[in-house]
Design brief:
Helices cover about 30% and strands about 20% of the residues.
Length: about 950
């Protein structure tokens, strides 16, 4: 008997993989890691597999090591699996050739993810799995969370029967992290429900064929030209048999589950002339669009590819309707320099071999790096097919104004079934919004008959980045594998977002908007931007506010507002009766936080109890429809690059940028994080001048370089409120001292306050955390501090105090609040200056140090006439007129020079580039590059 599960795709897959595995050799990589994590948790709690034992989880030193362990474990006769993605999968490829060559029945589960080409991308496409086509692995694709668990079952059963390893893949994040309510195999009694589908004779033969001293054999020999070719062909019969085996297993699984699949599934009109061929999560969006357009009289079709390798002409041609005249093949990958993408080439070859030259085939690319693919784009593909000469090798979902591959989009298509409720939640990474929404979707999925879906859109910053949770509920199956663009309910969990993002455009007429803020109804007049007020009024929105921060502190939750906002959602959305929701929320809070102790659980329960008392309904004034005044976003003087490229991305408008705005090599200017001014902290440090001892400890531990000491020459004119005190130390005679905080760059971690030696209770305090609103006036002081010249005197860089007077060249990164790594990165840049070259591999450092579009690595601010001229995104060197007149000391003549470092040669009286002065004399005519200390050196 199957069971209902409200879970994400990773869990759905691991649920089946656990059943068939003696061993899982793993190495974590986003977004596949949860598959191994839940398997490890099940093993720890004693869950048994089909063989009546717990799965052995072996974490290796790398993905290459994991693949080697899989190979070794299989060679010993143990049923073995692994979970991976992207570059991790590439590291496994060498071992994959061996596993397939030795006909070992393993399954690799891959949450397909983009590869690092011009840039790293942690999100989904098929670049990684397409690199495995030649390995000899059979390849099976899933399109949804339900299919992910079903195809995982098909993959394991087929691998055993065919003696061929399988690569089962599904879209990273879009499927791996999407939550839906599914029918899953019951794990009771060692997964007895599926035991009858297993070919136990094949399992027995595999185990007995493992390397064993009792019946030894050798495998993996070295073969000479006389027999190697024959050996490669000897396995043909296994691959020829695989499609029929997969089809038979799909039939058996269908008899068990009631969900029927074929290697290639066709949906749509039986007499369709225009057909799309696709695999992955995009298929659900296409099917939903077909159903929508069918109601308008369109006859369209879709072929869903499940078994991609071996590519079976028999099953493919059986899926192509006899009426098909035009086919668009959609690939979620790009192969630079090829005649076309992989699936397109396979379809063209199959139709040509079958003599179906009457069908016009075009290929297109979509959804790379999890780029949106929605019904509007699907319709554009079908509209392209309707043309006499459809565009081939097209792209959809972007604006390609360079090579003009993109399809024009028509009117917006809302293909979701009537009655589907859509909700959006704007949160801050690590504030608990995503976790609360995962609990909410599970509560509704587990305790109602509704279909549910949840998807969480992240930027690639660590905690502190924006998260948008997309939740759907309905009485019909949900196939909307794309972001919500028309919402019944929208919640903003961070008040700073009201001036940063357009959150109301997606709200339906008469929809509900919930805002976490400390503002009264009267204060909203000035705190909300004019554009937001206009939309709220024109959409006749129901507006509610709740001061979740205040309520959270009342119950001892600090800044964790997630439980309060969750309770407010259940009250306002009214999807289930609130008294039931209250009970379920508390049960899930206990399940989620029980390991942290009863006190933490009680605080969450108290937060749920107090939440509703803080809800305030605000009647939207009709005059807001014509509002012209209100809050405006923080404006900083920035570069043209920032305004035209970075700012739209930060405002969640990056999808609108055309190809011409992107540097083909992936290069970006440095030092651009200083323009972001995210203002995400709830509390920021306030410096108390009288208590500070000037030790610099606060600065050295700051993960984001948001608090720094400054030396101000006596007599320098400073703004009102820019308090200074006399600097301590003979090296700093003639200077005053100040610690300055950048409140809009601070993440509010409190590290500085925690390490300050003058923060003992009952004693005067040098730093204390204050609400952000009370410290925004310090932003002007911060901007002034950035104009102060660098201290030119002697510094002992072995001392914390002195080292912190050096400008950090790593600032305002995307690291988590309180990060323990970035203070070291920052310190290295202070100690070694702007002559560093930073090479980075992957992991956190590639995200907090290199997340487009901004760069936290910066350079020294040079005095006028000394500014270096870096290459910009377009590759041009900016033209700056720095000419000046200098006198030749050798001949007494004057000359206008073009560069600051041009000098007259004292030895010969000729004008040349400056020579080497390291030893006080000229050593040749070599270009000089000034060091920070001001001396030249030979280039």
């Amino acid at each position: 008997m199957s069971i209902k599960m409200t879970c994400d795709g990773n869990t759905a897959v691991s649920h089946v993989a656990y059943a068939f595995s003696d061993v899982a050799a793993i190495y974590p990589i986003t977004p596949s890691s949860p598959m191994a994590e839940v398997a490890d948790e099940w093993a720890a709690h004693g869950r048994t597999n089909l063989f009546g034992q717990k799965v052995k989880i072996a974490e290796m030193q790398s993905e290459a090591g994991a693949a080697g362990a899989v190979h070794g474990s299989l060679a010993a006769g143990a049923m073995t699996t692994t979970f991976t993605a992207s570059q991790g999968l590439l590291l496994m490829i060498p071992n994959m050739y061996k596993i397939s060559g030795e006909l070992m029945p393993s399954v690799f589960h891959v949450s397909a993810r983009a590869l690092a080409y011009h840039a790293l991308n942690i999100f989904g496409d098929h670049s990684d799995v397409m690199a495995c086509r030649q390995t000899g692995f059979a390849m099976l694709a899933s399109n949804s969370v339900q299919e992910a668990t079903d195809m995982a079952l098909v993959a394991h059963l087929s691998a055993i029967k065919a003696s061929v390893p399988f690569l089962h893949f599904f879209d990273g994040f879009r499927t791996s992290h999407e939550i839906q309510k599914i029918d899953a195999i019951d794990p009771k009694d060692n997964y007895a429900e599926i035991a009858g589908l297993v070919d136990w004779d094949k399992v027995k033969a595999f185990r007995e064929g493992g390397l064993n001293p009792d019946h030894p054999h050798q495998q993996g020999t070295a073969q000479n030209p006389d027999i190697y070719f024959q050996g490669r062909e000897a396995a043909n019969k296994y691959y020829e048999a695989t499609p029929d085996i997969v089809a038979e297993v799909m039939k058996q699984v269908g008899e068990l589950t009631g969900r029927n699949y074929k290697p290639f599934d066709y949906v749509g009109a039986p007499d369709a002339e225009r057909v799309i061929i696709c695999m992955g999560s995009g298929c659900d969006a296409i099917e939903e669009t077909i159903n929508y357009l069918a109601a308008k009289g369109e006859k369209l079709g879709l072929i869903k590819v499940h078994l991609y390798r071996p590519f079976s002409m028999k099953y493919f041609l059986a899926a192509v309707p006899a009426t098909a005249k035009k086919i668009a093949v959609l690939d979620r990958t790009k192969e630079s320099g090829s005649l076309g993408e992989p699936l397109y080439l396979d379809v063209c070859s199959a139709l040509l071999e079958a003599g179906r030259t009457d069908i016009k085939v075009v290929g297109g690319r979509y959804g790379l790096g999890s780029k949106e693919f929605n019904p509007t784009m699907v319709k554009a593909v079908y509209d392209n097919l309707a043309k006499d000469e459809p565009k081939n090798h097209f792209t959809v979902g972007i604006t390609d104004d360079v090579t003009n591959t993109s399809l024009e989009l028509g009117e917006t298509v809302d293909a979701a079934p009537a009655g589907t409720v859509a909700c959006m939640f704007y949160g801050l990474g690590s504030d608990g919004t995503v976790g609360a929404n995962k609990n909410s979707i599970k509560i509704i999925g587990d305790h109602t008959d509704k279909y549910v879906q949840a998807y969480f859109s992240y930027d690639s910053k660590k905690s502190g980045g924006i998260t948008v949770s997309h939740l759907r509920f309905g009485d019909k199956p949900i196939q909307s594998t794309y972001l919500i663009d028309s919402a019944d309910f929208i919640a903003c969990h961070n008040p700073a977002y009201v001036t940063m993002y357009d959150m109301v455009s997606a709200l339906k007429q008469g929809g509900t908007f919930l805002l976490n803020c400390p503002w009264t109804a009267e204060e909203l007049e000035n705190q909300l931007p004019a554009s937001m007020k206009q939309l709220l009024a024109k959409k006749e929105a129901k507006l509610y506010t709740v001061d979740a921060i205040k309520l959270a502190r009342q119950v001892g939750m600090g800044n964790r507002i997630n439980t309060i906002m969750q309770a407010a959602f259940f009250k306002l959305a009214n999807i289930i009766p609130y008294d039931q929701a209250d009970e379920y929320m508390k049960a899930y809070a206990k399940k989620t936080y029980g390991k942290k102790g009863d006190e933490v659980v009680k605080k969450n329960w108290d937060a749920i109890d107090i939440a509703i008392s803080g809800l305030v309904e605000v009647k939207v004034p009709a005059e807001w429809a014509n509002a012209t005044t209100g809050a405006v976003p923080m404006k900083v003087e920035a570069t043209e690059y920032f305004e035209k490229f970075v700012h739209p991305i930060l405002a969640q408008e990056g999808n609108k940028l055309p190809v011409s705005m992107i540097d083909a090599q992936g290069r970006v200017p440095v030092g651009t994080t200083k323009y972001e001014k995210r203002g995400i902290a709830v509390m920021v440090p306030q410096w108390n001048i009288d208590a500070c001892v000037g030790c610099g400890t606060c600065s050295i531990v700051c993960p984001h370089a948001c608090i720094r000491p400054y030396l101000v020459a006596e007599g320098t004119e400073v703004p009102a409120g820019f308090e200074v005190k006399k600097a301590v130390g003979k090296n700093f005679a003639g200077y005053n001292y100040r610690v300055q905080v950048s409140p809009l760059d601070c993440t509010g971690c409190g590290n500085c306050v925690g390490v300050c030696p003058v923060n003992q209770k009952g004693v005067k305090v040098a730093l204390e955390m204050k609400p952000l609103a009370s410290q925004k006036n310090q932003e002007a002081n911060w901007e002034f501090a950035q104009t102060l010249p660098e201290f030119k005197g002697e510094l002992n860089l072995k001392l914390v105090k002195d080292s912190q007077f050096k400008k950090p060249l790593f600032e305002f990164s995307g690291a988590c609040a309180g990060c323990g790594e970035t203070p070291y990165v920052k310190l290295v840049t202070q100690l070694f200056g702007d002559r560093m070259i930073v090479a980075n591999a992957t992991g956190c450092s590639s995200i907090y140090g290199g997340s487009a579009p901004t760069c936290p690595y910066t350079r020294l601010r040079h005095e006028p006439g000394h500014q270096p001229a870096p290459r910009q995104a377009g590759g041009e060197r900016p033209q700056v007129d720095r000419r000046r007149v200098v006198r030749c000391s050798h001949q007494g003549s004057w000359r206008r020079v073009a560069r600051e470092d041009e000098r007259c040669c004292r030895l010969q009286g000729r004008w040349r580039e400056a020579g080497c002065r390291l030893q006080g004399r000229h050593r040749g005519w070599l270009r000089v590059r000034r060091l920070q200390a001001g001396q030249g050196r030979c280039g």
